[in-house]
Design brief:
Acyl-CoA_Oxase/DH_mid-dom, Butyryl-CoA Dehydrogenase, subunit A, domain 2, about 15% strand, Butyryl-Coa Dehydrogenase, subunit A, domain 1, 3-stranded mixed beta sheet, Butyryl-CoA Dehydrogenase, subunit A, domain 3, about 400 residues, glutaryl-CoA dehydrogenase activity, 3 domains, alpha+beta, 4-stranded antiparallel beta sheet
């Protein structure tokens, strides 16, 4: 028998055979999230995007909680305790539907819940994590400020002691989930350094006006957080961390999800381009039969599946406890940048139809413009890698 007769057939949807890296549980989780997104997001997301709303977000959160998708890679307190790869697969499938849905899950699990899980007291964990894991309570994460995005060390939000209490004052902006959150993890300057606070959003002096007129992440709730002398008890502070290492470690966890999620957006656009190229006829035959179109599709497939392979590699390293923040920067920088290029190339294949909401391409392309800069801009990740490569700090 020849060696070629034992080879599996070429799968256009998985040209590198990456499914061979997954076990049955991995595949089951991926397929469950994919089916949920196909039923609960894809039929409606174009309308949500057009109206700039995410109706039923609380119901969606409870459904995601029932699937174990909230705080998915955390253990205990009602969390699923899934592997990093399984969490990544979920992020990919969610963002293949829409970046706003993946952002809802990332902010809930990788930022707000992760902060409480890693740095919170036993009481804070028991109070918040089970309800957040189930989707009963939505969380948000307040770090970015109107004048301080890439430089959080210069934040102005301040917490001062008043007797046994803390009094929190300041503003945060571009906060996913803010207007619907029941709890906010807010980072603030104190006399002791930067500290994190667990803030119930019904606290007097706290408000979260929603940000409107966005042209990206329109199927997502984005808000400001305004703290006007919000009085908090002594035990509102996260006790296990002081300094920027707290919020930055949370961001690393969330950025890991973006490494996977961005490839979901890219995959959706690539699949739309392939389907369109097979059926759209010009000059008497499908445009997929022309060399220039095939060249575009081949290049898109190469970058898409290289990006997914990179995400797998980083996930295995995270599961082994060997993933460094610089490696996450490597993944976010590459995968988001390539995802945007894949979406733009898909738009050229679809021509004028590429800007229509009947197809997912322009929606994903505009969403990825936000993903490119949130949780670390291109420039910040380039400088993280530059410092790691040269040993020289170019940030200041």
């Amino acid at each position: 028998m020849s060696a070629s007769s034992t080879l599996p057939p070429f799968d256009p949807a998985d040209p590198l055979g990456l499914d061979d890296l997954l076990d049955d549980e991995d595949l089951s989780i991926r397929d469950t999230v994919r089916s949920w997104a196909a039923e609960r997001v894809l039929p409606y997301v174009a309308e949500w995007y057009e109206t700039g709303e995410l109706p039923g977000i609380r119901e969606l959160a409870r459904e995601l909680g029932s699937m174990g998708a909230l705080g998915m890679s955390l253990s205990g307190y009602g969390c699923a305790g899934a592997s990093a790869v399984q969490y990544g697969l979920a992020c990919l499938e969610l963002e293949a539907a829409d970046s706003g849905i993946r952002s809802l899950v990332s902010v809930q699990g990788s930022l707000a819940m992760y902060a409480v899980h890693r740095f919170g007291s036993g009481e804070q964990k028991q109070t918040w994590l089970p309800r957040m894991a189930s989707g009963e309570v939505i969380g948000c994460f307040g770090l970015t400020e109107p004048d301080h995005g890439s430089d959080p060390a210069s934040m102005r939000t301040y917490a001062r002691r008043d007797g046994a209490d803390w009094v929190l004052t300041g503003r945060k902006t571009w906060i996913t989930n803010g207007s619907v959150a029941g709890v906010a993890v807010v980072w603030a300057r104190t006399e002791e350094g930067i500290r994190g606070f667990v803030v119930p959003t019904d606290s007097p002096g706290f408000s979260a006006p929603e940000i409107k007129h966005k042209w990206s992440l329109r199927a997502s709730v984005t808000s400001e957080l305004v703290m006007d002398d919000v009085r908090l008890p002594a035990d509102a502070v996260l006790p296990e961390v002081t300094g920027l290492k707290g919020p930055l470690s949370c961001l690393s966890h969330a950025r890991y999800g973006i490494v996977w999620g961005s490839m979901g957006a890219a995959r959706a656009c690539f699949e739309a381009a392939v389907d369109y190229a097979r059926t759209r006829e010009q000059f008497g035959r499908p445009i997929g039969g022309f060399q220039l179109t095939q060249a575009k599709l081949a290049d898109m497939a190469v970058e898409l599946h290289k990006g997914i392979l990179l995400a797998h590699h980083l996930g295995r390293r995270m599961d082994a406890g060997r993933l460094r923040p610089e490696q996450i920067s490597f993944g976010k920088l590459n995968n988001v940048r390539e995802a945007i290029e894949i979406c733009r190339t898909a738009r050229t294949i679809l021509g004028a139809n590429g800007i229509s909401l009947e197809y997912p391409v322009m929606r994903h392309a505009t969403n990825l413009e936000s993903v490119l800069t949130y949780e670390g801009t291109v420039e910040m990740h380039q400088l993280v890698l530059g410092k790691a490569l040269t040993g020289l700090d170019a940030f200041r």
